[in-house]
Specification:
Layout lengths: L4 H25 L2 H22 L5 H19 L3 H9 L15 H15 L6 H11 L5 H8 L3 H17 L9 H23 L3 E2 L5 H17 L4 H14 L25 H13 L6 H14 L8 H14 L3 H15 L1 H9 L8 H12 L3 H14 L1 E2 H13 L2
Length: about 400
Amino acid sequence: MTATDPRRAVETVWRMESARIVAALARLVRDVGLAEELAQDALVIALEQWPMTGVPDHPGSWLMATAKHRAIDALRRQGRYREKLELLGRATPDADDPDLAAAMDDYVGDDLLRLVFTTCHPVLSTESRVALTLRLLGGLTTEEIARAYLVSESTVGQRITRAKRTLADKRIPIELPPPAEAAQRLASVLEVIYLIFNEGYAATAGDDWMRPALCEEALRLGRILATLAPAEPEVHGLMALMELQASRTAARTAPDGTPILLQDQDRRRWDRLLIRRGLAALARAEGAYGPYVLQASIAACHARAARVEDTDWRRIAALYEVLTHVSPSPVVDLNRAVAVGHAHGPARGLEIVESLNLPGYALLPAVRGDLLAKLGRAAEARREFERAAAMTQNARERALFEARAAALR
């Protein structure tokens, strides 16, 4: 074993186990910020000891046990040791047992679910929810989150600090929401996971068309949630949607990073395993008609079409029509316009687009330009693509729109 192996092992185990450790500690100390600090303490101890002593046989359990010892010290300092000792120690008579975490296995699922619902609590701003979720459940560092979202580390750090302080100040309990609040809170959780995925799938700014690492984190978080909440159709709907969209990743860019639009992709490069997983998740949500299930059904239409000519655009347009009633928004209407344009002609699609108001949203003029081009109105289409290029903050997307405009000159 080389000298660098223990450090790499610490980093790997931390990415895999940190959410589980923080979740267990949060249940004990009733404070998300303190729980993360205790877990970080355990990480620092591992970084100090493992290079000298070697990686333990059960590194995850070692980190959990060390973190819980830190929790005992913290509770003692707070004068709440006796109150928590029974909870912490029952069924764990030997507090020095490196497999201390095994005694908590019955609680791990609930602990993680509590942490998910806490980090995604609606009392936090959307940006804070995303940052805190990636930090505590994704195991990402502040630097990694900042790099993914093209903001400064100090901005991310402030969002995370503010989120922890808000949870503490508002006395948000680290528990599953009561039944009356469950649907609203679950919607917030799903929104955060999908926001993370979408930023990875189509980056809003920067030089890259995609950020696959964020897609992978969202998929990982979604799979955890699907395991913890197997009876929720929308959880499976979100998983189906992400798996099906992620299946196109390899085909979405040329070797030089240039974006490739859906209709031009080599579908042989789509990941068949992810498609099978997505369709299986969609089947588990069968009979439900929530927004994620409907979007997954639309993605499934594309996944099932071996060629772009085989796409069932009439079904996609009909699904978008239902989605406009279930989850109305101008962006849904814009996507419906694209589907209607394919299914019933570009003039019909343009009618929908002309009724929309999405200030600063680059895809609105881009879709309008595409429909105008299909109608033979090249000069108008060129101006729309130029407008879209001026609006977007993503360099790859800007180049794509500029190329579309140039082709119409």
